[in-house]
Write a structure and sequence with these properties.
Elements (H helix, E strand, L loop, with lengths): L1 E8 L4 E8 L5 E9 L7 H4 L4 H20 L5 E5 L1 H5 L3 H12 L3 E3 L2 H13 L9 E6 L4 E6 L4 E7 L3 H8 L7 H21 L8 E4 L1 H15 L10 E3 H13 L2 H5 L12 H14 L4 E5 L3 H12 L1 H9 L3 H12 L4 H17 L1 H4 L3 H13 L11 H10 L8 H12 L11 H4 L3 H19 L8 E7 L3 E8 L4 H9 L2 H7 L2 E8 H4 L1
Parallel strand pairs: 1-4, 4-5, 6-9, 9-11, 13-14
Antiparallel strand pairs: 1-2, 2-3, 6-7, 7-8, 10-11, 12-13
Length: about 525
């Protein structure tokens, strides 16, 4: 199963989710982390991220990256939204993060933000083929999305985020009538303009996502029931309830707001402008009910990642080991006969495991033998004639992630000597190896030659083999069907084995049909 960490560097908060992607392309969130860093505080007036906010954000991101890596998450995808994309020093902040953590943050546009948010919403709230209006009220921007269960139809990103509105219009608490009038005029004009630009005018439902909307729902549910909201996703609040709590915020001092049950203290100055935006949107879209969704951009990034990397994720699920996966990918690109190659690899590894007392090699060399066996017939891509030499060329000139240049040379040489000539100093590829690697190539090639001979027909008639070590090494081969070609080819390929180990090699054939 693939693992992915998603970090969302928002205007108000920095979030991280740790997810495990299942073989069926679904995912499971294993952990969540959030820190309300208020990166956008003051940024929309000055067009700069403050030094204090940058310091806070860097500390949080360093902590999250370390945490993810300590939990085994090497694949980290990070996005940043309006505060970073609008700040003149946003690029400097991205560079600092890369320098201090190695993390490359992608700064996304408002429309891309809306697309990713809608992916998160669409996959977590039941929708029909009728259009639904979704809204995400962030710290710096508000994303409006019209879509159904199949597609995102329209999207707008508006500069109506709660931190932005609080900084610009609500300079004291409670605010003056003039402040509120200016704020309401701006919100109404931008929301109405966006709704007018959408071809779709009627909506099946209105869905709100983000921490702002979630906290508003928690406050309203507590007022309604005197009990905490058990689950944000699919909870509903009415326009009447939104208007009532808005008036409470309107008349309250900071101290009074902090006493409101359920209100997140870190949203004491931003939940009010967010509530105004949601109330005006409900009025303008003629919706009396708002449905909550607790999934947004982070989940959208995961869905987007799954969609973009579906084939790679499938390959990772099938072959978790990076090196083996890349070797298999090269074999497939070269159109090597996969069934034969894997069968030969299995026979070669069985020989390796049962002759450990002779060669004294370990798991690293064992993996090189497997890779060489998988790739030994890759040279057929160029030509059948001398395909062993072509295999050497293809392997040494390929970038196989996870294998060093030295390892590639060993694998290529072993593949090259699976037939015809044995390793010789007149061969440049072999001559350039160190003494240690020359010995390893000779041993592994000796095993691969026999394994390849034991599948001469490519029909996998050799089911298993047993090795008995002694002055003469006996390989008992268990076969099904006609193994005449294999019983001829394997002894012919035994020459290098006998030279390397200085022992005679004898084959004994047992037909499983005879035993039966």
């Amino acid at each position: 199963m693939a693992k992915i960490a998603v970090i969302d560097v928002g205007t108000n908060s920095i979030h991280m989710v740790l997810a495990e992607i299942q073989p069926d392309a679904s995912y499971k969130i294993l952990d969540r982390f959030k820190d309300m860093t208020r990166l956008g505080d003051g940024a929309f007036a000055t067009h700069r991220l403050s030094d204090e906010a940058v310091t806070r954000a860097l500390a949080v991101i360093r902590h999250l990256v370390t945490l993810a890596k300590n939990k085994g998450y090497e694949r980290i995808v990070a996005v940043a939204t309006s505060a970073v994309r609008e700040a003149k020093n946003g690029g400097d902040f991205i560079d600092l993060v890369a320098e201090q953590t190695g993390l490359a943050i992608r700064v996304i546009s408002g429309i891309e933000e809306a697309r990713l948010i809608f992916l998160g919403v669409k996959n977590n709230v039941p929708m029909t083929e009728q259009p639904t209006l979704s809204v995400d009220v962030g710290g710096g921007s508000v994303e409006l999305m019209v879509g159904n269960r199949d597609h995102l139809l329209h999207a707008k990103s508006l500069k109506l985020g709660a931190i932005r509105l609080a900084d610009e219009f609500l300079k004291r608490t409670p605010p003056s009538e003039g402040m509120l009038r200016s704020l309401e005029e701006l919100v109404t004009a931008q929301l109405q303009g966006a709704l007018d630009s959408f071809k779709t005018k009627r909506f099946d439902a209105l869905i709100a996502t983000s921490g702002m909307a979630g906290n508003l729902a928690e406050v309203i549910h507590l007022r309604r029931t005197n009990r905490p909201l058990p689950q944000i996703n699919l909870a509903t609040i009415s326009l009447k309830e939104v208007k009532e709590i808005e008036q409470v915020f309107r008349q309250s001092t900071i101290k009074a707001r902090l006493a409101i049950p359920g209100l997140d203290p870190k949203r004491v100055d931003t939940l009010y402008p967010a509530t105004i935006v949601l109330r005006r949107l409900m009025e303008l879209s003629q919706r009396d009910e708002l449905t909550l969704c607790d999934k947004a951009i982070r989940e959208g990034v995961i869905y987007d990642f799954i969609h973009r990397h579906r084939e790679r994720l499938k390959a990772e699920a099938e072959i978790p080991d990076l090196r083996r996966r890349n070797v298999m990918a090269l074999a497939r690109r070269c159109q090597a006969p996969e069934v034969h190659s894997l069968h030969v690899a299995g026979l070669a590894l069985s020989l390796f495991d049962q002759t450990t007392r002779l060669h004294r090699l370990g798991p690293t060399e064992r993996s090189w033998l497997e890779y060489a066996a998988i790739l030994h017939d890759a040279g057929y891509l160029i030509s059948e004639r001398q395909h062993h030499k072509h295999a050497y060329y293809l392997i040494t000139n390929s970038d196989v992630g996870g294998l060093s240049a030295e390892e590639l040379q060993v694998v290529a040489n072993v593949a090259r000597y699976h037939r015809r000539a044995v390793p010789q100093l007149k061969h440049e590829g072999f001559r350039s190896l160190s003494l240690k690697f020359k010995r390893i190539v000779r041993i592994l090639s000796a095993l691969l030659r026999i394994a390849d001979g034991l599948d001469r027909t490519h029909f996998s008639v050799v089911r298993s083999l047993d090795v008995r070590l002694g002055a003469t090494v006996t390989i008992t081969v268990h076969v099904t069907g006609d193994a005449e070609l294999e019983t001829w080819a394997a002894p012919v390929r035994a020459d290098l084995f006998e030279r390397v180990f200085r022992r005679r090699l004898k084959f004994s054939i047992i037909s499983q049909e005879e035993v039966a």
